[in-house]
Amino acid sequence: MTEYIKHHSEEHAQLVQWRRDIHAHPETAYEEFRTSEIVADILTSLGLEVHRGLGGTGVVATLHGSLGAGESIGLRADMDALDLDELNTFAHCSTHQGKMHACGHDGHTTMLLGAAVMLAKNPHFKGTVHFIFQPAEENEAGAKAMIKDGLFERFPVKEVYGLHNWPALPAGEAAVHDGAVMAAFDTFDIKIVGAGGHGAMPHDTIDPVYTASLIINALQSVISRNLDPQKSGVISVTQINAGHAYNVIPEEVVFAGTTRSFCPQVRDLIESRMKDVVTNIAHAQGCKAEIVYTRRYPATINTPEEAAKCRAVLEQMPEISLLHLNPPASMGGEDFAFMLEQRPGAYIWLGNGSQEHTHNLHSPNYDFNDDVLPIGANFWVRLVQHLLSK
């Protein structure tokens, strides 16, 4: 008979211990040495085939079902933390200044470990499960690095699945999308070069500050006047640096930011029109302009068939009180998108909110809700049973 993790059980207590230990020792992109070692040691103790070093610090563990050969699937969790000072004061807060698990990857890692524990105890399925523990989700494309290292060649899977905790949903709720879940994530760096001079004599200068202000305002016209209003896109300038004195117009201004989109045509439009706006306005003001537009993560797009499989599992889970179908997609980015470009699959949101857990992702006061650990682990177990039961 299949076992699941119950709240306040010994198994739950073990998950809490693992999660809080990982939280207290956060490691950022490609430096998850301690975390990956803990993950690999736990998986090895379960008797799984464990492979280390994919994408630098990634870990993949393989479990074969007791019912013989069959399909192979991948389950993915991210392990990295953020460059952020934690403001919490509880016993398991970060011991590494300037680093913090503010996105719940400590919980994601622990839930997948919990599923590995339960499935290793009772591998009553036909086929193979590859547990994928990924580094560097935050900005540094660890999924892409694992794929480049041969993830899907070494561990062929028919489908791949991921999840993310979602504080906007109460614990006990979940969300599944038939298509777009998270947006494409790109960045831009812009330099405007003029001719500096005295702030009291602007006619003797070519003012890059004024030119930059015109460009920053005009960039919003790409969204409001070039983009089909029935489609989504975001351009946000998030940094600007220029000058050091009250009475000096500087030689140059640099500013940077991010764009978000869902469909490839909108992504292309945003990049093309941004370059036109920056170049032409700078030229009209007598300045020189440089723009570097970097495509970071593609949009995270579920395949409908695999999303339906997640939906079927969640609808049957007693721990899930409400399932949201196709809520508005998030403009946040997620590098699980690289895996979904390679294989069919789905990425779900698992409610994480409660009266004690009200802070959003990336907040210095965020902490993963340990009550959700059994729910996530049990979802993975049930998904394996659903997909590999025949």
From TrEMBL:
It holds the Pfam family Peptidase_M20. Its cofactor is Mn(2+). GO terms for biological process: diaminopimelate biosynthetic process. The Mn(2+) ion enhances activity. Mn(2+) binds at C103, H105, E138, H164, H362. Keywords: Hydrolase, Manganese, Metal-binding. GO terms for molecular function: metal ion binding; N-acetyldiaminopimelate deacetylase activity. It comes from the Bacteria. Residues 187-281 form the Peptidase M20 dimerisation domain. SUPFAM superfamilies: Bacterial exopeptidase dimerisation domain, Zn-dependent exopeptidases. This is Peptidase M20. The lineage of its organism: Bacteria, Pseudomonadati, Pseudomonadota, Gammaproteobacteria, Vibrionales.
